[in-house]
């Protein structure tokens, strides 16, 4: 009988633990989703409703005026700038990082360990600490306020992470697979492309996602390196809606919603790989 | 359809820094032969195979396939097929795609209908028809092994290289796959070079065995030659289950003498001052009266093997093995006498060099 009591006691503890876990998850979800929901709500409200007391999450009248205003102000060009800089940075960084990650695993060369250490150490240095010297350098070499400035700096930040992620994957691929492909009639590059790379998809997507979020969300580097309004990125352009004579909260929130959409869509498309990719990088290599 | 090609090693050596993995090896494999590179771990057999494949470059010497010098050529230009110990199946490709993979290479891109036909032929021959859509992780070890073989068989290469392809299978499957391999070799008539440390596989499959040790070829010949006439004590000890019994001693009064041993050495002992080693296979020892027997000892263990018994006998400080018929009665710690079945069955070696004398 005592066994039954013990079992019932355990069940009660288990149920309580589950309820607590669910409550904690709910609280975390509210904290995470709350601001986004509020931003969406605000972006759809009319100006006179935004500061209404008591506040309401559901707008009484839905309006797209704030979105229209953004387009009227040309924010879509800033969106395009952000997209282009991010695409250029992420694609070049992932290609370079993949090649370097492969080389670190498959080739022997002088100072290999030291170089790898340098790559990894560079991830520990806060990029902002180097911003001003970098700005001075970019001014001197003529890259300041040019369309290539941001892609170069973003890529430099993403490459070590891409190396780290892909190296972990390549190290886990047995060399025999490439040998088999070589014997089957493929060149080294073809073997790596057709046999090693397909398995690296989670690592590549994880590295791309990290790079995308970093480049897409960046504000500080962009304000430091770009001066011309026509080359501004989306986060910088949106700051101007804070205005000097009171903030345009509706437009600001509409901009925030637009800026949030691409990362959310990407996450939803690739979440399976992202979770796999990050855990792979963390336990292998 | 290509014809089987020869493989020739001319003074091939491979060094990794200060370590010599393969030391000036000469091997001549005739077209259509099944040749096994046999030896313990680290003897250089896999390195030798990798050099034929082009996965390792020789430090010196030449490799010829079908009379063509391929020493500097990459693997893709040697037209060889290889089965790896780990099978090396492409994990993201189905069984069909794994087998079709060599036919999709740029240099031998095959039209779709022909590709399908060839893959189907191979998978039918290997009993893989029902698994074509599966991924390697979804099939058993034996099936993976067959897929690896199928990938080699789907084209008709100059030479098949097999690197311990059966070592990951359980005993029963290994024996089954061994006879399938033999069958495939006979059907294809292809040149096959096989690497193993399992002498049973080497003995049953090969036309010729190359016994290697420390990067050198210890002996090269047919399984029968190697078993009956080992060139040195290494081969004598390495081949056979258990290996040859070796008795080391000095010749005195026409016999090789050591603790518990007095084997007549009339043929090789005359005029010899140095040490000698007599080698006798366990099946070439017969029971003799303990007080007059050339080899006297006490029974240590008796192993029942089904058709016969294996005795382990303490002779001086050494342990001697002997097969005995089931009818014979032995008990542990019992004194026992042994003699060679005939003087011809004793193989003599020089104790200094370890080389055979007869």
Overall pLDDT of chain A, averaged?
Answer: 88
Low-confidence regions of chain A? 280-285
Name of the CATH class of the largest domain in chain B: Alpha Beta
3D shape of chain B: elongated
Order of helices and strands of chain B: EEEHEEEHHHEHEHEEHHEEEHEEEEEEE
Report the CATH C-level class of the largest domain in chain A. Answer: Mainly Alpha
Domains of chain B, number? 2
Work out the strand percent of chain B. Answer: 25-35%
Q: Could you describe the 3D structure shown?
A:
The complex is a heterodimer of chains A (285) and B (358). With 285 residues, chain A is mainly α. Chain A has two domains: 2-50; 65-284, MetI-like (MetI-like fold, Orthogonal Bundle). Chain A has helices spanning 2-44, 47-50, 65-72, 75-106, 112-124, 131-141, 149-172, 175-183, 188-196, 201-217, 220-225, 234-239, 249-283. Residues 280-285 of chain A have low confidence and may be disordered. With 358 residues, chain B is an alpha+beta fold. Chain B has a six-stranded mixed β-sheet, with helices on both faces. Chain B has a five-stranded antiparallel β-sheet with strand order 13-12-11-14-20. In chain B, strand 4 (60-65) and strand 5 form a beta hairpin. The longest helix of chain B has 18 residues, at 171-188. The mean pLDDT of chain B is 91. Chain A binds chain B through residues 174, 176-177, 179-187, 190, 195, 198-199, and chain B through 53-55, 74-76, 80-82, 84-86, 88, 90-92, 101-102, 105-108, 151, 161.
Provide a compact summary of the structure.
The complex is a heterodimer of chains A (285) and B (358). Chain A has 285 residues and is an all-alpha fold. Helices cover 76% and strands 0% of the residues of chain A.
Task: Identify the notable features of this structure and list them briefly.
heterodimer, A: 285 residues, mainly alpha, MetI-like fold, 2 domains, 76% helix, globular, B: 358 residues, alpha+beta, Rossmann fold, OB fold (Dihydrolipoamide Acetyltransferase, E2P), six-stranded mixed beta sheet, five-stranded antiparallel beta sheet, 20 strands, 23% helix
């Amino acid at each position: 009988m005592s066994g039954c009591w013990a079992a019932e006691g355990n069940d009660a503890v288990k149920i309580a633990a589950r309820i607590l876990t669910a409550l904690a998850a709910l609280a975390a979800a509210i904290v995470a989703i709350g601001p986004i929901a509020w931003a969406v709500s605000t972006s759809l409200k009319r100006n006179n409703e935004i500061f209404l007391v008591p506040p309401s999450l559901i707008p009484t009248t839905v309006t797209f005026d704030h979105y229209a205003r953004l387009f009227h102000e040309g924010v879509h060009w800033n969106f395009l700038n952000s997209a282009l800089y991010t695409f250029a940075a992420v694609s070049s960084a992932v290609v370079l990082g993949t090649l370097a990650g492969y080389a670190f695993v498959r080739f022997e060369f002088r100072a290999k360990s030291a170089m790898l250490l340098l790559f990894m150490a560079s991830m520990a240095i806060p990029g902002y600490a180097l911003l001003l010297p970098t700005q001075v350098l970019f001014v001197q070499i003529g890259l300041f306020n040019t369309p290539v400035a941001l892609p170069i700096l973003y890529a430099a930040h993403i490459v070590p992470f891409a190396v780290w992620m892909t190296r972990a994957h390549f190290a886990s691929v047995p060399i025999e697979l490439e040998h088999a492909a070589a014997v089957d009639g493929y060149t080294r590059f073809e073997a790596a492309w057709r046999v090693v790379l397909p398995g690296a998809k989670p690592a590549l997507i994880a590295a791309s996602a990290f790079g995308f979020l970093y480049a897409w969300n960046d504000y500080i580097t962009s304000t430091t390196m770009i001066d011309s309004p026509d080359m501004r990125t989306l986060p910088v352009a949106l700051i101007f809606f804070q205005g000097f004579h009171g903030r345009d909260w509706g437009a600001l929130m509409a901009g925030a919603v637009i800026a949030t959409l691409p990362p959310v869509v990407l996450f939803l498309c690739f979440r399976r790989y992202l979770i796999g990719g990050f855990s792979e990088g963390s336990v292998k290599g | 359809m290509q014809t089987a090609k020869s493989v020739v090693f001319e003074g091939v050596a491979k060094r990794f820094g200060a370590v010599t993995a393969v030391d000036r090896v000469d091997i001549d494999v005739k077209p259509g032969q099944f040749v096994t590179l046999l030896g313990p771990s680290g003897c250089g057999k896999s390195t030798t195979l990798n050099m034929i494949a082009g996965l390792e470059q020789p430090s010196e010497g030449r490799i010829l396939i079908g009379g063509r010098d391929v020493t500097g050529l990459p693997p893709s230009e040697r037209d060889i097929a290889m089965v790896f110990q780990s099978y090396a199946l492409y994990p993201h490709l189905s069984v069909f795609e794994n087998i079709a993979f060599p036919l999709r290479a740029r240099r031998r891109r095959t039209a779709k209908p022909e590709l399908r036909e060839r893959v189907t032929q191979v998978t039918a021959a290997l009993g893989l028809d029902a698994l074509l859509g599966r991924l390697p992780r979804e099939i058993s070890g034996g099936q993976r092994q067959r897929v690896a073989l199928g990938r080699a068989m789907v084209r008709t290469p100059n030479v098949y290289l097999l690197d311990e392809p059966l070592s990951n299978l359980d005993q029963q499957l290994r024996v089954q796959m061994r006879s399938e391999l033999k069958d495939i070799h006979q059907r294809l008539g292809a040149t096959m070079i096989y690497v193993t440390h399992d002498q049973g596989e080497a003995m049953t499959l090969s036309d010729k065995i190359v016994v290697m040790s420390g990067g050198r070829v210890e002996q090269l010949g047919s399984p029968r030659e190697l078993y009956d006439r080992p060139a040195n004590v290494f081969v004598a000890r390495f081949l056979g289950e258990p290996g040859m019994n070796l008795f080391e001693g000095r010749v005195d009064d026409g016999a090789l003498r050591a603790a518990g041993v007095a084997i007549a050495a009339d043929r090789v002992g005359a005029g010899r001052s140095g040490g000698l080693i007599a080698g006798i296979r366990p099946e070439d020892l017969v029971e003799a009266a303990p007080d007059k027997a050339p080899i006297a000892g006490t029974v240590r263990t008796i192993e029942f093997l089904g058709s016969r018994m294996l005795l382990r006998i303490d002779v001086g400080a050494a342990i001697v093995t002997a097969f005995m018929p089931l009818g014979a009665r032995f008990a542990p710690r019992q004194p026992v006498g042994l003699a060679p079945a005939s003087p011809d069955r004793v193989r003599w070696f020089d104790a200094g060099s370890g080389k055979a004398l007869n």
